[in-house]
Amino acid sequence: MQTTFGTGQPGRENADLAFTDPLTGLGNHRRFFDKVDRLISDRADDPAPFTVGILDLDGFKPINDLFGHKAGDDILIQVAMRLRASMDGYSTVCRIGADEFAFLYPMVFSEEQAAEKSRMLIEILSAPYDVGERTARLSASVGCSLFYSGDETTEILINKAETALYHAKRSGRGRVVVYTREMEDAAKRVTRIEQALRRAVSAGEVEPHFQPIVALNSRRTIGFETLARWTDRDLGMVPPSVFIPIAEERGIIGPLSQLVLRKATEAARNWPKDLFLSFNLSPSQLVDQNTGLHILAILDRTGFDPRRLEIEITETGLMTDPASAEKIVEDLRRVGIRVSLDDFGTGQSSLGRLREFHFDKLKIDRAFVSSILDDRPSEHIIRAILAMCEGLGMDVVAEGIEEEAQADRLVQFGCAGGQGYLFGKPVDADATLGYLRDSYRGALRAKAI
Ligand code: C2E
Ligand code: MG
Ligand code: MG
Questions:
Q1: pTM of the entire structure?
Q2: For residue 372, what are the domain limits?
Q3: Is residue 3 part of a domain?
Q4: pLDDT of 359-377, one tens digit each?
Q5: Ligand 1: residues within 6 Å at CB?
Q6: pLDDT tens column, 327-357
Q7: How far is CA 199 from CA 131, 259, 278, 294, 298, in A?
Q8: From the CB of residue 294, how many other CB atoms can be counted at a distance below 10 Å?
Q9: Are residue 319 and residue 229 in the same domain, yes or no?
Q10: Which residue spans within 316-403 are E strands per DSSP?
Q11: Are residues 55 and 151 in the same domain?
């Protein structure tokens, strides 16, 4: 049937189209809002709760990139069919975003039931999808909220489901989270930190601190790791373990990183030339092809020799988009920047990765170092890592050394580099200069820094 637009006659088909998702034939976000609005007014005098949920496909974008958009569309159509088939006579499912679906369960009255229904949807979507000759698999995350009182609007309910979905996504793939009050408080706190951080970054208020990295046998300082520090007027000192993940999630990591690198290289360019500076890159920066250009532009501006810079990346950073990470790393390596694999031994360590990627250095995670004295497995793992690094021609630094006995044991095993509170905590640029003056007194007096 042909449909005409703009005839001035809002015919039935036009009205339907305005509420329909053309790809899947499901209702769209307008239909969903409309359905929830109606149910809220129906329930005005009837206090029975009901459930709304938002389902988001995990990792749909890489599937789209890998199989192409046509295949991506086919998968969305199959997802829609499965979801529609799983609804009972009362329930509704709509497509409200590219890979986001919303459902309404008028007869689901409790959080347990909501979670159970959602898990069932995830299960249904987990079976393989036909994509031409191949098959693809998908997981999905769901956030739900329940309507309890007439004070709630459709918008509030959906926002709560979005908040729950955000928590589900944060905790991994294929999860279901039902909204609670604490979640809202946590979400508000994250938003507060995000706002304050945006302001701090544009005001240039995030500072680099520097922690010495030493040659373990001589204890001579060979370089420093840059670690971001931020003290907000209202929030006080916020640790990087809190603000770095927020910066990554909310798209602030790029500007934050550039600010810290600029300040760090400005401070370090006057240090003795044999000292290197290392700098952490977040996983999301290894997906952004501008990262390399930004780093090079900063080095150019501050006049810092790229051969003195090392970047630290984690295996998580390589996993999201290995091709993109490899390109960025190669561009940086071409100008002499060295690359370290940070926090080795935690997360999804893969020896395969060490074959595919060339690292100049490996940093053994603090978890192994802290248990080296009283835990045989840690000792064996460290020895195996050291042997492997030697074979692959990689430098090694053991992180988080706090005690003399740990340092002694590492020297005994042949570990060349160390970092940890035993040698120095991260301190600001002025204190670092003081530290360098003390340790390099003679040599530096001659150079008059
Ligand atoms: P990381 O890169 O593994 O940095 C080492 C962390 O261990 C630092 O924590 C450091 O202060 C801490 N540490 C060093 N020696 C010891 C020790 O002897 N004992 C103990 N208990 N801890 C020690 P920090 O500064 O809190 O940073 C945490 C993480 O935040 C870093 O882990 C890094 O992943 C991230 N981070 C910090 N600054 C930046 C940055 O500028 N950019 C990015 N992308 N990430 C950063
Ligand atoms: Mg690091
Ligand atoms: Mg580390």
A1: 0.79
A2: 191-448
A3: no
A4: 999 999 999 999 999 888 8
A5: 211, 227-228, 239-241, 244, 257, 260, 280-282, 312, 342-343, 366, 400-402, 419-421, 426
A6: 999 999 999 999 999 999 876 667 777 888 8
A7: 46, 13, 26, 21, 21
A8: 17
A9: yes
A10: 338-344, 361-364, 395-398
A11: yes
